[in-house]
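Record type: ASSEMBLY
Status: queued
Input:
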Amino acid sequence: MSTSTISTTGTVTVLERPTPMVLSVARRLRQSFAGGATFAPIDELRVVRLTSATDAQRVFVSFYGPAVCVAADSDQDAELTAEARWTDPVPAEWKEAGPGTFAQELHSLLSGAESSWQDAAQSFWTRAGGLPGMPDSLGVYCFDENSTAEFGDSGGNHYQLLGTSGALARLFSGRSLIADELRGGELALDGTSSSFSALVGANLKVVFGEI
Amino acid sequence: MKSDRFNEMAPVSCVRVEATNHDGVFVGKTLAPAKYQSCRDRGIAMPDLVLGLDLGNDSAMGFGMPSWRRNGLITDIELRPDESTLVEWKPGMASVIGDFWTLDGEAVQADPRQALKRVTAAYAERGLNILACVEIEATIFCESIDQARAQQYQNLTPLGGKAGAVLVHAKSPDFVEYMEAVVARFDEIGIPWEAWSDEAASGQIEFNLAPTDPVTAADHWARARQIMREVAYSLGRSVTFMSKWCSEYGQGSHLNVSVSDDKGNIFFDADEPTAPSDRMLHFIGGVMSTLEASTSFALPTITSYRRLVELEGPPTTQTWGIANKSCAVRAALAGPSATRLEYRLPSADSNVYSTLAVFLAGGLLGLDEESTPPPPFGRMAWALAPGTVPVVPKSLYEAVAALEADDKLRRYVGDEFIDYWIGLRRWEWLSFHTTAERDDAEISVWESLRYFELA
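Status: finished
Output:
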């Protein structure tokens, strides 16, 4: 294998049969590249397989030059494998990801940039606030910081999310699902079921990179 | 004076009020006669979740809910019987199909039967009548439904032995017994049928129902499937409408449609009977411009897409052709009464109310705009090189994305019908990938458990 000494941003393509994990991984890679992340382009095909920690999904990420393909299936053997949550596809433990390794580069790309819960919430509302069924306004209360944020037009259909700073940041930035955070005990809700349904959909659209 | 078909029929001890949810499941309640009489004008109260649960019994989430969901408080909607469908299902039991209405007395726009009625009415406003019929395919098994459940619907034994050939009369008596019992029930209920036969895969069967108006055709489809299940159970068998239950050929639900005005079949050109009429071409033009957007209705489940195998029979391309069964839409030029279009994409697990509604919506768009279709495809429309013609979406996600990008169908069937369906299908796709034991190219047990009895 030869590796260029020049770093580049990648062009991410989703191949046939998009799955939730495929879309999530593609979105994370695109976000990383959009944020300025680079990697050393490779002049031979390298394939990495990520398996979901919670279900049967798996994703193959192929690198060739600046091209990055994300797919649910692959005819190629993966030279690296790792397990990750599909909504936040950063391998928790990846012993191959030592300094200067390809795995370490990929780990960095999959990690993406962290946001504060306030920035993530603002970005979420900007992108999702106009989706059908969304509440007219969204209130957010952060338990551990005892701080609030309000979005949208007050007085109409209002929805309130209450959570820890970590849960709110994960949720609004599309690193977790509402259901995950509810199960984890770091999120509470107050509003109608219809708004909840729309918020679930908006949350998914962020995870999939659709908005 | 309004006729009172219920009181004119022989006394019954119960009334089954029926509808079809988005997944094609026959749903409703069975009422005592007095209760039915007391509420039949307004409708029988049903929880709104009757149109909101998936086939795993979870509430579908992830989309804006229409006003009749009343903020998700699990409110009621009303199933108002259409007594033109009233029949004696069996001695002592009446059966009637209904439509969903809101508590405010408005039609539930997302209701598949209401959507089909809206589109049919739009044709009527233009002086046009539709004839439609369905080819129902299914697979019948030796095992009882209890045994099939115990086996999680795996490794079942198709009734009638191996296929080996199609249209075989020399099937074993158990196979013939089932088919004859089904058509006997069709006759009792009043469902006109034209033919039955075996089909290409082991245990696979087909019933051809007679053409009629679209809503009646869909009602017949819904009741025919109920009969096919009831007969199977009574004979100790099981039956499925899964689009593909094993590696053998899948099964479809082809729709046949013709349109007439006061002069007759508008698809037929008496001056040039071997070519599509101008209006048939317009209709096809509209259908082809909405074919991709319509795909999720024709192929509504995860399994539906497994049926799309090159050279196996189901269309894989967005093509139409004259007498070309490899295309998604076949123009059958068969004289003034039988010239029609056959929509060959729908799988056996599709909901005929919905699928027919969007197919007719596409056709009406074409008639209204005098659309020009792409040229007919005259070659075999399978195994073509990439880029030769547009292909049918390969997954539910891609099909739903095509519907989201479309702005034509919703003009005829309404925003709510489209948006609600998109929400339900995205949920179906998500549920599969995040809860199935496998999500690769093989049929999962998850699919069998979810679709075998209900789809």
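Annotation: The domain at 117-207 of chain A is CATH 3.30.1050.10 (Nonspecific Lipid-transfer Protein; Chain A).
Annotation: Chain A has two domains: 11-111, 117-207.
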